Amino acid sequence: MQQRHLSVCLAAALGAIFLFRGGASSERVLRSENIGMSQEQRRRTVGGYSDVTSEELSSAEFLELATFVMQEYARGSSSSQFITGLSAEEISGIQTQVLEGSRQVVAGLNYRLTIGITRNGACIGALKDVTIYKPLPAMHAPPRVTSWGKYLSCTDEAIASRIQESEETKALMVDRSFEEEREEAEPDA
């Protein structure tokens, strides 16, 4: 009986040592994997949304997505009427700017965007957190708006200032391209 008790105690002690060493070992592995990673990178959830850069926001990819959203709205895909009193023709005259964006890799891509809406440089409003699903090319399926998010009016100071900044940035880019063209045409001037 005493020998049996000793065997049970020895097994329990070995089990505790094994668990302790295993936990410390896996903790060391986790720490070594995190070397060189920023705190922000460690916090990101695998499969979660990742923010995109301001350069990406002004890229053709994101401008096409914003145009697609407005085309879908004009077709009546949204049950909400956030832009009231505008015909489909008037909606086609609207300019869009992607103010914020993030991307999630799934079986394709999910985009979550804040889209500023202007006409003739005047703020009409914005769509915040509109979500577009773009399937993989092999799926031969078109993109679709999966969530219209919420409408923000131009009285929202953050939206109005972001749209203004975007308009100013576009104007500066146009000025720069004119200067570059002039310098190419008149190199000694």
Q: What is the number of strand segments?
A: 6
Q: First CA to last CA: what distance? A: 104 Å
Mean of residue pLDDT?
75
CATH architecture of the largest domain: Roll
Share in β-strands: 15-25%
Helix content: 40-55%
Q: What is the SS-derived class?
A: alpha+beta
The helix count comes to: 6
The main β sheet shows up as: 6 strands, antiparallel
Query: What name is given to the CATH topology of the largest domain?
Result: Nuclear Transport Factor 2, Chain: A
Order of SSEs: HHEHHHEEEEEH
| Top-tier CATH class of the largest domain | Alpha Beta
Signal peptide: 1-26
Organism: Thalassiosira oceanica (Marine diatom)
InterPro entries: Cystatin_sf
Protein name: Cystatin domain-containing protein
Structural summary, described in words:
It is a single chain. The longest helix is centred in the first third of the chain and has 32 residues, at 2-33. This protein has helices at residues 2-33, 39-43, 54-57, 60-74, 88-92, 157-185; strands at residues 50-51, 95-106, 108-119, 122-135, 144-147, 150-152. Strands 1, 2, 3, 4, 5 and 6 form a six-stranded antiparallel beta sheet that branches. The chain has two domains: 2-41; 50-185, Nuclear Transport Factor 2, Chain: A (Roll). A hairpin with an 8-residue loop joins strand 4 and strand 5 (144-147). It contains six helices and six strands, in the order H-H-E-H-H-H-E-E-E-E-E-H. It is an alpha+beta fold and 189 residues long. The radius of gyration is 27 Å and the shape is globular.
